[in-house]
């Protein structure tokens, strides 16, 4: 894992959590949308928070796809779950919400899970299958080497 | 009856998002390291390869199904049950599906990570 790859994982985490927060704030500003006035949903894109939220979620999708191109799914998903922790910290210190003890335990569990997975390898290496003729006609020097 | 609808929605969300994640992961492994490909052949080659990959398109379709199932689920049940239940179950089903279909090496470390994160998500919503 290189520093650039850790940056991509940070991009997945940050874009998803900040994008969701912005969408939530924007949709609260827009107000509830009735099923009879679905055109309001299109106009909601004009809200700056919604527009920025959509841009960040596009950034999330691009960085998530990039991460999946060089890392296992079972590595990327837990490694990027720090977004839940980030949202709790935003709720506590920025939105001044009350965070209960069980939520702090949840934060601790997620952080431990991230710690567990990031200590291991990011990608499963599947050994290339040797063509049959190589297996059958093994050079004598290879046999001698054993 | 309402509870049966809610849990059916959770089941569909978990199934669709796991299918989507597995298909997208397979598609991106077929495309190869995006950074290296971008440096070698440029952005348009990367986009062309990703968008022409059938697994990518099916993955996006599965993710769209998961999103609309979530919307339907939220109209039947409580967000405090549906969102954490589907998110945490998806971590576990993804680990199983990645082992079965992507042949990823899901060792004890990854199992622990999936279970800890799943438990943590449930507690955050408690």
Features:
heterodimer, A: 146 residues, mainly alpha, globular, disordered C terminus, B: 126 residues
Provide the β-strand percentage band of chain B: under 5%
Helix percent band of chain B:
over 70%
How many domains would you count in the coordinates of chain A? 1
Average pLDDT for all residues of chain B: 88
Give the gist of this structure:
The complex is a heterodimer of chains A (146) and B (126). By secondary structure, chain A is mostly helical. Helices cover 71% and strands 0% of the residues of chain A.
Overview of the molecule:
- The complex is a heterodimer of chains A (146) and B (126).
- With 146 residues, chain A is mostly helical.
- Chain A has one domain.
- In chain A, 71% of the residues lie in helices and 0% in strands.
- Chain A contains eight helices and no strands.
- The two termini of chain B are 24 Å apart.
- Chain B is mainly alpha-helical and 126 residues long.
- Chain B has one domain (2-125).
- In chain B, 89% of the residues lie in helices and 0% in strands.
- In chain B, helix 1 runs antiparallel to helix 4 and helix 1 (2-31) packs across helix 5 (79-101).
């Amino acid at each position: 894992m290189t520093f650039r790859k850790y940056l991509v994982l940070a991009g997945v985490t940050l874009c998803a959590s900040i994008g969701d927060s912005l969408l939530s704030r924007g949709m609260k500003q827009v107000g509830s949308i009735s099923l009879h006035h679905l055109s309001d949903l299109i106009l909601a894109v004009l809200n700056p928070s919604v527009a920025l939220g959509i841009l960040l979620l596009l950034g999330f999708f691009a960085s998530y796809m990039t991460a999946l191109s060089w890392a296992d799914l079972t590595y990327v998903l837990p490694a990027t779950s720090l977004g839940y922790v980030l949202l709790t910290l935003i709720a506590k210190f920025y939105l001044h919400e009350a965070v209960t003890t069980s939520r702090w335990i949840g934060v601790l569990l997620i952080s431990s899970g991230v710690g567990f997975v990031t200590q291991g390898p990011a990608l499963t290496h599947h050994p290339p299958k040797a063509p049959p003729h190589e297996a059958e006609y093994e050079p004598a020097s290879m046999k001698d080497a054993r | 009856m309402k509870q049966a609808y809610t849990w059916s929605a959770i089941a569909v969300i978990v199934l669709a998002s796991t299918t989507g994640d597995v298909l997208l992961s397979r598609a991106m492994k077929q495309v190869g390291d995006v950074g290296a490909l971008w440096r070698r052949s440029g952005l348009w080659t990367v986009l062309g390869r990703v968008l022409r990959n059938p697994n990518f398109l099916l993955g996006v379709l599965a993710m769209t199904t998961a999103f609309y199932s979530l919307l339907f689920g939220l109209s039947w049940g409580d967000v405090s049950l549906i969102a954490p239940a589907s998110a945490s179950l998806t971590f576990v089903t993804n680990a199983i599906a990645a082992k079965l279909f992507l042949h990823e090496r899901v060792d004890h470390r990854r199992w622990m990570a999936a279970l800890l994160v799943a438990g943590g998500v449930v507690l955050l919503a408690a």
